[in-house]
Amino acid sequence: STIRTLVSPNAPSPTIRRSLAWVGFGQVSYFALTFLGSVAVARLLSPHDTGIFAIASAVVGLLAIIQAMGLGNFLIREPELSPGLIGTVFTVNALASLMLSILVALVGLLGGAFFGDAGVRDVLLVLASVPLIGQLAFLPNALLEREGQFRTLTLIRTLSTATGLVLTVGLALSGFRYMSLAYSQVATALLTNLTVMVVARRHVSFRLSLEHWADVSRFGAQIFAVSGINFPIGVLIYWFTTNLWSMGQQFWVIHNNPQPGTPAHAAREARIAAKKAAKAAAQAGTVVATTDGV
Predict the structure, then answer these.
(1) What predicted TM-score, i.e. pTM, was given to this entire model?
(2) Where in the chain does DSSP place strands (E)?
(3) Alpha-carbon distance values, 282 to 122, 211, 272, 287 (Å)
(4) 81 has which bridge partners?
(5) Poorest-confidence range of 69-73, 124-128, 196-200, 284-288?
(6) Is the model more confident about 54 or about 209?
């Protein structure tokens, strides 16, 4: 059989304005939660721990170029979807996800020696599972977007991001250090994808096929040629600006609200004591000058 309609017959028909509103709400919510998470991380983790995760994330981001084929968009834009075509897209994306996971794991095994820190290896080995987890709900995600179910997707992703934030803080407080970021990212991916699979269970399929591999590969190659090659430049600019923001944010938090027992906290207490002493000396000088004038 063939799916000839862009929207499932049983699915609601949201307006474009409402869909855009939900997409905007999702972006704002994600930014707000990410900001809160970065503040919490700067408060609970040391710059060394944050740097380990940043290096691992940068490596994963660069390797993720092999997934820049836009296969989810292929499912959204295609006028007719047959089971064979859906199975082919799922199979090609699964192979790309598997390749990415293997590369991340290999870099993790070698990265510890290259970066001189076993933490990078440990984080990369954990993050290697994220592409495979994402494959679980690849079809439901794409087909929900095809049906215009942005409200559902936004609520799922926002709740999962909030849960990941809480988990990150809890793990950091429990002493997991940089691994709290890696474990929470895996947990967030699991929660998001499993929830999407439950909500859109009618779209869940693990059927493997290469029936339309030529069409799918041609589309993927075109998208890769347009966006994949430019990806490293764009992502490097993004990382540069976000790292500057993160460094400034961490400096402000550590300078003004450091964790007790740290050198930054001792330095802040010394600054406060110096200000109080200077203020008391100034007040004493004013009193003496007033007395002399009398």
Answers:
(1) 0.70
(2) none
(3) 55, 84, 15, 9
(4) 3
(5) 284-288
(6) 209
